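hey all, quick one before standup. I had two proteins in the batch that finished overnight and I want to keep them in one place so we stop losing track of which output belongs to which input. First protein below, input sequence then structure tokens straight from the run.
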Amino acid sequence: MLAETVLTPSDLIWPLFIAAGEDGEEPIATLPGVSRYPVRNLPAKAREARALGIPCVALFPNTPPGLRSSGAAEALNPDNLICRAVKAVKDAAPDIGVLTDVALDPYTAHGHDGLTDEAGYVLNDATVEMLAEQALVQAAAGADIVAPSDMMDGRVAAIRSALEQAGHANVQIMAYAAKYASAFYGPFRDAVGSRGLLKGDKKSYQMDPANAAEALREVALDIAEGADHVIVKPGLPYLDIIRRVKERFEVPVFAYQVSGEYAMIEAAAAAGAGDRDALLLETLIAFKRAGCAGILTYHAPVAARLLGKS
């Protein structure tokens, strides 16, 4: 009765990894309990989300190696894996929100979030032009929210302008506004097939974990350019950033409880170091307490079931 913070299934966004084949699900070794799903399995996942009270799913494709290239052309294919996945979810459960990732790393042969020059340096402006086209392709497929995760400068303004001009004014932008160059992303890169491809690191465009004031500047820019919501990523190590963003800007702030955070909870539970259900619920309530409007978490269906029981 006196709890100051409340967590419900409607606070959760469920990330789903998409496999290119038509066979069954593909378990991800570094993310125990998480799999890649072929497109034909997505309608069942969408209906499961609806039954659990989860309002939105986030889709991430594992693009086959043969379709990855230095120019990331597959990102603009209107029949690519992510577009087929969006259509499958919306056909099965039109009332479930679909969030899509706007970045080139699932499509590049080198694993970076953008186009690169001959020296391997990511080209900001050329990448932004392509990201705007990518967002249009995803919006045309039926995405409700596009989420630029690339951290290029100026991409939110370019995407907003492109959406407006193409008649997609109601498609929302959830910007990864404060995305840190983190050690917690490893299992995600396994899931989307980019870990072995990455040349170098992403420190030239993702944020330094030592910086907080910079996060506020990045968020301010994305809001000014037209972002409807912002994401702080990773989650638990950056609760201070979530709080500062919420207090400064009073916009919906989302946390991404990333793959490494998920894997640590699962590993702790497997080692007998703690109760998995208690650990994950305490973590999720911490995000809400810090000021989050919602949380992207691979634990979404587990948490929703626990919350339903309580």
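OK second protein, same deal, sequence then tokens:
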Amino acid sequence: MATKRVLITGGAGFIGSHLADLLLARGYRVRALDSLIPQVHGDERSRPRHLAADVELIHGDLRDPRAVERALRRVDAVFHLAAPVGAGRSIEEIAHCTSVSDFGTAVLLEAVVRKPVEKLVVASSMSVYGEGLYRTPDWKIVEAEERSPAQLQAGRWEPCGPEGEPLEPIPTPETKSPSVLSISALAKHHQERLCLMVGRAHAIPTVALRFSNVYGPRQALGNPENGVLAMFASRLLTGDAPIVFEDGLQQRDFVNVHDVVRACRLALESAVSGGRVFNVASGSSVTIRTVAAQMAEALGRRELRPQISGQYREGDVRHSLPDTTLAAKALGYEARVSFTEGLLELAEWLRRGLEGATRGVAPTNAMPDALERHHVEGPSPGA
């Protein structure tokens, strides 16, 4: 049987390059379509050193029909990972965010309809849920409402029930109705729904994977919107204490990139029919305050204690705890990398990159320009 060729949109990036490594090891031929945006790849916009040599890279914009047509030639399956970068800036760059997510996905889907593939896997996000599910003191499960500006300004961080009662966060399954609180979350929801709708209409098996907070080597630390771990690390490595929003007790599920790409591979190779949605997470949660302290410990900067700012960001949710039961049953997915193991790997990669930058030698997985210049862009997000 001929070797299958897989296209990864956004394939030169953080998750995409790791997915390419895994697929190559499984015997697939891999092609990546990537615009190589400066935020992630630097002003040179050249092929990143961490992208495997066997990956065929097409430098092009997802919104360019000619680039997409070229990328889809003789392709058997597609992973759609390309997305606008930056949840915080999406409120200021509305046209760009919606253009890349909505129009870019539409261009891809029109091309896929003309050249159908065996499977389409689209990267979605836990952010589509907004606030997750909660339990009242009498064990009733409720969907918490968005926290009001007045509540946040008063420093009352925890969501309340219908009668003002305290709530306990519980794992959120895929059956929860979407409640998007940011433009980037809306963009992810649109991408997911577009792919599932077109897949169903044209009998293209399509699976959406809702990623939790993904972390690991190759994160672009120069991008202040690329995750709290990346920004905590940026500050710690330049001698600054990490800044934490709210009171630091908000909970998140951090899933290692190696687990994420394995979930992608399982979605590709499983017999699961199209039209399915799965949470991809670690299955455990940690407070942001604890994350900051553990990141400092892993990098040998324990004296840099987290600064609890008491500030907040519009669109942030208080707690995000995914339920991964469905992915376990249908895909055979379970997280294998513990948060401690993942942090140690990330810290080692960061140290190697910093040492290489100091010597003027770029390592295999090159560090972002922002860290090479020992420069930090803006405060670290709290979620």
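Flagging for whoever picks this up: The chain is about 35% helix and 15% strand. Residues 133-169 form one domain.
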